[in-house]
Amino acid sequence: MIAWRYPLPTTCLLGGVSYRIYNALIVIQMMQIIVLSLAECTSDGFFFCITMHLCGQLELLRNRFAEIRRGTDDKVHNDNSLRPLIIRHQKLITLARNIEDSFNINILIRFILISVVIAMSGKLFIGLRVITLFRQREYNEVMKMLFFIQFYTLQCFLFTHAGDTLHSQSASIITSIYNTTWYELSPTIVKDLMLIMIRLKIPLRLSAGKFFFLTRSTMTDILKSTMTYISFLQVTMED
């Protein structure tokens, strides 16, 4: 009996089929891989684009706060300059909450899958498999494993970069307000700015299932833990 090799690990289920059925299954699995890859990239791209759009809007809001100047009529100046900025900031906060509520469970599942897939593949660990295949000179399988590791690492970077950028952009508005000529404004406007700064002390953040926030340190922690585990496996195999 010929042991067919499939793009997806289904040899144990579809190993005894004829050559014609094998070719049909290859085509079906290739279509499945393309559809799943497009769905994966589309979902990640949508999250990244909408989050970076929010970051861009926060940067524009920060620039508008930096342009606050003293007006001839403090009451009119307060209504004409601060009210639109406050309303705009409230809308951006609502958008950030909607993104958080829509994606936090999905991001948590992605991070769990990233950690598991990097560490495990079927019955063998990826680190152990890469080392074993490299020793057996199975370079095609090694490249496949490294491709998956690189893909999930890039996916992890997109999530953490978007979350970290959102946090830094929302926190930078406080500095922008403080750097204005607030000492030349009326006490009423200064009090309003103080209330705005108090609200901005709670920066906008994205989390993974409400368990931890998305920052670049999250990505580095995952990579350090993974590399440490792979190094441990390599030392264990050498012994």
Automatic annotation (TrEMBL):
Q: Where are the transmembrane segments?
A: 21-39, 107-130
Q: Which Pfam families match?
A: 7tm_6 (PF02949)
Question: Where would you find this protein in the cell?
Answer: Cell membrane
Query: In its keyword annotation, does this UniProt entry include Membrane?
Result: yes
The superkingdom listed in its UniProt entry is: Eukaryota
One molecular function GO term is:
olfactory receptor activity
Q: Transmembrane helix: is it a keyword of this entry?
A: yes
Which keywords describe this protein according to UniProt? Cell membrane, Membrane, Olfaction, Receptor, Sensory transduction, Transducer, Transmembrane, Transmembrane helix
Q: Which GO terms describe its biological process?
A: signal transduction
**One GO CC annotation:** plasma membrane
Signal peptide span: none
What topology does it adopt in the membrane? Answer: Multi-pass membrane protein
- Indicate what this protein is called per its UniProt record: Odorant receptor 85b-like
- Organism equals Dinoponera quadriceps
Question: Which gene is transcribed and translated to give this protein?
Answer: LOC106751116
